[in-house]
Amino acid sequence: ELFGSVEPLLPTLREDGVAVWVLGRGPYPPGVVALQELVDAASDQLEPEDVWEPRDMNETCLYIFTSGTTGLPKAARVSHLKSIMCLGFYELVGASSGDVVYLALPLYHMAGALLGLSPLIPPEPSRVSPGATCVLREKFSASQFWDDCRAEGVTVFQYIGELCRYLVNQPQRPEERQHGLRLAVGSGLRPDVWRSFQQRFGPIRIVETYGMSEGNVTLFNYTG
Predict the structure, then answer these.
(1) What does the domain layout of the chain look like in residue ranges?
(2) Helix intervals (H) in the chain
(3) What pairs with residue 20 in β-bridges?
(4) Strands 75-79 and 60-65, bridge-based pairing
(5) Which end of the chain is more exposed for a tag (fewer CB within 10 A), N or C?
(6) How far apart are CA 138 and CA 205, in angstroms?
(7) Which helix (H) or strand (E) holds 97?
(8) E strands, the chain, where?
(9) Residue 123, preceding peptide bond in cis (omega within 30° of 0)
């Protein structure tokens, strides 16, 4: 759905040697790679390990674009090592393979992709990543959140601070404490919203974290 914004720039991008990949069937102009067609044609069998294993774990795995709070969005380099370290996120905050994680954060962001989703789908049994069930919602809805939690058996919620504020600002409902949520983990939760959230919705453990896509240090508030 974003291709229309890129299409007028295609001649300039070609001159600069920039490849354009689109996840969709198209049709697209010449020079644009339609990834869905390649995915459909690809074999289900894994290539030999020496083909896809990185030579150096400090090599670039992917780029995450910052939100642009200090200027235009910038591509932050994320190494293979950092990506693998993110697999331990849920184990660090106390989740396990029996949990059901509710995720409504965008998957183009580090919190949603590397911390939210990737630890839940380890490629093989791992001591680092517990693996768990993920309830992946395309768009967060404060009015439907607790209904979703009850319907899906949600036990862990990954948030950014505003999501909790949206929930606290909702009109009170008799059934809003009838849920199995035991852990909320995320970033940017204000102290007043933190207190209101727990007073209103029950003794949910909250683990606040802070990190940056381009940083090399992460903080965890284990003490609450």
Answers:
(1) 2-42, 51-220
(2) 3-6, 10-15, 35-41, 49-52, 80-85, 89-93, 110, 145-152, 161-168, 191-201
(3) 32
(4) antiparallel
(5) N
(6) 25
(7) none
(8) 20-22, 32-34, 60-65, 75-79, 100-103, 133-136, 156-160, 183-187, 205-210, 219-221
(9) no
Q: Is the pLDDT at 159 greater than 60, yes or no?
A: yes
pLDDT, residue 124, reads: 61
Can you name the CATH fold of 51-220?
Answer: Rossmann fold (3.40.50)
Among the listed ranges 25-39, 102-116, 193-207, which one has the minimum average pLDDT value?
A: 25-39
Q: What share of the chain has pLDDT > 70, as a percent?
A: 95
Q: Which residue bears the tokens 């991008």?
A: 13
Structure letter (DSSP) for residue 173? -
The span from the CA of 168 to the CA of 136, in Å, is: 22
Helix (H) or strand (E) holding 72: none
- Taking the C-alpha atoms of residue 189 and residue 45, their distance in angstroms, rounded to an integer, is 43
DSSP 8-state secondary structure symbol assigned to residue 105: S
Q: Residue 3 has which token pair?
A: 């291709």
